[in-house]
Input
Amino acid sequence: MSGMRFTPKGYGGHRRNPDEVKRDGWKEQGLLAVAIDDDRLTWPERELVRQLGERLYGKREREARHG
Output
């Protein structure tokens, strides 16, 4: 006997790409996820992202070990 299939929201069909998740997080919850090496940003913007990240979360492991 085959019945109706129920798939909970987020578990079927379309999987969002990372940029869609980031955009939706920003628009819906005010969360900003930015890669420090995103080439859409200028050097001053990347530097600001790095400084904000360090202020909120500390130095990245790679940077802490090398300098």
Observations:
- Helices lie at 18-29, 43-57, 61-66.
